[in-house]
Amino acid sequence: IVEELAMLPIYAEPIDYAVLREKVEAAEEQDTVDGIVASFRYKTALHFDTIVGMDVEGVEDEIRHVLDDVVQESGYLISPHDVVVTGKRARGLENVHDPIDVVVTHGTTSLSEEELTEVLNERNLKLDDLPIRIHPVEAQHLATHLLVEETKLAREMRQVFAYHKNHLKEENAIVVRPSIMQALKEAEIVPEKKKPDQTAKREER
User: Fold this and answer.
1) pLDDT at residue 194 tops 70
2) Is residue 190 part of a domain?
3) What number of helices (H) and strands (E) belong to the chain?
4) Cα(81)–Cα(139) distance, integer angstroms
5) 98 is a domain residue
6) What does the alpha-carbon distance between residue 195 and residue 201 come to, in Å, rounded to a whole number?
7) Residue 109 lies in a domain
8) Which pLDDT score is estimated for 40?
9) Is this structure's pTM higher than 0.85?
10) How far is residue 153's CA from residue 180's CA, in Å, rounded to a whole number?
11) Is residue 118 helix, strand or coil?
12) Where do runs of H (alpha helix) occur along the chain?
């Protein structure tokens, strides 16, 4: 599944969420789902910029603790399971003041996804004065959500890399971190060299 997504062009058609969900749910082994989540988190750890001295695991733990208080104060029966940093910060593509996007997995609840989003974001949480945007997702659909997210971020990384190459000699060229540059260079497709012209030369009389 990951290989299929990686081959999508930058301006491909929108991802069919239902099809992706079917593919993930069709996986017979739990290792497949766990692998998708682990792979996403591994890449985030490579590109994440620390916030107030905390790496991505520290940030996720901090947000998890704060959410426990939010849930208790809400009075609703909500059981947050896990917190995963997503969005541009997951791949080091953010601007300085961009918010911290996180996916929060949860179990069964009487609230709709929209209501749950409103409850979890009601306090306008911040970390180091950066807004935290919470996106609730059912625990069983986390892998599917991250596959879609990975595809979007991969396209953005390729766009940044392409922009960087086109503006390499300009004074205001953007700076792309070495880890992203290396990953994209390794993924570049080198066009085949043109074969020499095989047309037979006309014989001189």
Assistant:
1) no
2) no
3) 7, 4
4) 7
5) yes
6) 16
7) yes
8) 93
9) no
10) 12
11) helix
12) 2-6, 17-26, 30-47, 56-74, 113-121, 142-166, 178-187
Contact 133, 100 (CB under 8 A): yes
Angstrom distance (rounded) from CA 4 to CA 165: 26
Number of domains in the chain: 1
Range of the domain at 81: 2-151
Q: d(Cα 134, Cα 187) in Å, to the nearest integer?
A: 32
Amino acid present at 48:
F
Q: How many CB atoms lie within 10 A of CB 85?
A: 21
Residue 43 to residue 91: CA distance in whole angstroms? 7
Kind and range of the H or E element at 137?
A: strand 130-138
Question: Given the structure tokens 């095989």, which residue do they identify?
Answer: 198
Structure confidence by residue, pLDDT tens digits, 67-124: 988 888 888 878 878 999 999 999 999 988 999 999 999 988 888 889 999 999 999 9
| Measured distance CA(130)–CA(94) in Å, rounded | 12
In a domain, 192, yes or no: no
Q: Which residue shows structure tokens 């300009």?
A: 170
- Calpha distance 112→106 (Å, rounded): 12
